[in-house]
Amino acid sequence: xxxxxxxxxxxxxxxxxxxxxxxxxxxxxxxxxxxxxxxxxxxxxxxxxxxxxxxxxxxxxxxxxxxxxxxxxxxxxxxxxxxxxxxxxxxxxxxxxxxxxxxxxxxxxxxxxxxxxxxxxxxxxxxxxxxxxxxxxxxxxxxxxxxxxxxxxxxxxxxxxxxxxxxxxxxxxxxxxxxxxxxxxxxxxxxxxxxxxxxxxxxxxxxxxxxxxxxxxxxxxxxxxxxxxxxxxxxxxxxxxxxxxxxxxxxxxxxxxxxxxxxxxxxxxxxxxxxxxxxxxxxxxxxxxxxxxxxxxxxxxxxxxxxxxxxxxxxxxxxxxxxxxxxxxxxxxxxxxxxxxxxxxxxxxxxxxxxxxxxxxxxxxxxxxxxxxxxxxxxxxxxxxxxxxxxxxxxxxxxxxxxxxxxxxxxxxxxxxxxxxxxxxxxxxxxxxxxxxxxxxxxxxxxxxxxxxxxxxxxxxxxxxxxxxxxxxxxxxxxx
Length: 480
Prior knowledge:
Elements: H1 2-14, H2 24-35, H3 39-51, H4 54-81, H5 88-95, H6 98-133, H7 140-160, H8 162-192, H9 213-224, H10 240-269, H11 272-277, H12 281-289, H13 296-325, E1 335-337, H14 344-360, H15 367-391, H16 403-423, H17 425-436, H18 438-447, H19 453-470, E2 472-474
Antiparallel strand pairs: 1-2
Helix pairs in contact: 2-8, 2-10, 2-13, 3-4, 3-9, 4-9, 4-10, 4-16, 5-6, 5-15, 6-7, 6-13, 6-14, 6-15, 7-8, 7-13, 7-14, 8-10, 8-13, 9-15, 9-16, 13-14, 15-16, 15-17, 16-17
Keywords: Membrane, Transmembrane, Transmembrane helix
Membrane topology: Multi-pass membrane protein
Transmembrane segments: 21-42, 54-76, 110-129, 141-162, 174-192, 212-232, 244-269, 289-309, 342-360, 366-387, 399-422, 428-447
């Protein structure tokens, strides 16, 4: 009897599926570590440039934090109402149907995720390389090479082990919070000593134009981006009904307070003109406020970028994994490594796309382009949540966000997205066009498969060989 019990236990442990290994501390670290990346060290320049004044830029930072918290609370309800992983994709599928869900998957993996990961990894490479060449300009080829090495490290960790990726995220999160504290403390001390000249006449509205304000919010919201990543891994969270809401609320309140204080600290040491001229705001700040520790800041910023990159590579492949499991992507991407228990094919797909985007260099102009698609689909997801509430009032909702918060967030998101059509019609139009290219793909490959039989047979043969090579198999038990 004992032998049979041990045999059964061993069999259960060997079953191929994603384990629930993310408790509260890793969940908090996952959100904070993904949100706090390159954004807080890059975006202040964009927020100030498009808002026009110190006071208004600080207000934009605070409002972006509140808006992100509202969105995170909506996603806490969605994450506890629908227990599948996959984040945006799953919620659109469950509330609005397969076409919006497929389009989200399509635009995420062909554009948004490679663009954002490339942007963050390039920031990592820049902060690693530039201190060695200062005051001269660092060679771009070397920056890109280091960026690719950073991406390779993150991919390797996420392919190797969920536990290792989780521990790496916790470590990098503590490092990046230390980096923010290192900026905040000298700023608060200088403020207490009366260094407030840059805050006087802080709300000059002469430079403010309505068409540029959405771009200020896009830059701020980019820095807060990542609050939704925990929802990508719902099936791997321990006690998700408790862990997801707690982790989201604690993380977003903490990040908002830190971000506003960091920007206040920047303005104690730099005038608005100096901040706009700075290529690396955190380094300029450190050279003035932390002469003895100035060389440490680029290292901390680089590690911060690495943490955001790790969080993105941990969360996003789960969306692809779930999409493939639902039949919206090739089945090979819904498979798990038989020993490592990681979604290996889904993680590996991102790698060549990010490297390709890094090499081609078309990154900086793409952030507004990516932001439009991202925020449009987030608005659709929360709209879907409201529709689902109305249609299925008895559906279990362990965490329920107040209606006023859900409506406010959805309306503001659609307002920002619509206003961006006026602010930046070229990038917004391209983003719409790219998203809509998924419509014919959906109808040809998913809705009614019209792919020639010969092509399908070739594709199935390649998938089978790839499955053997990667040592992956379909999930054997349901985890939702």
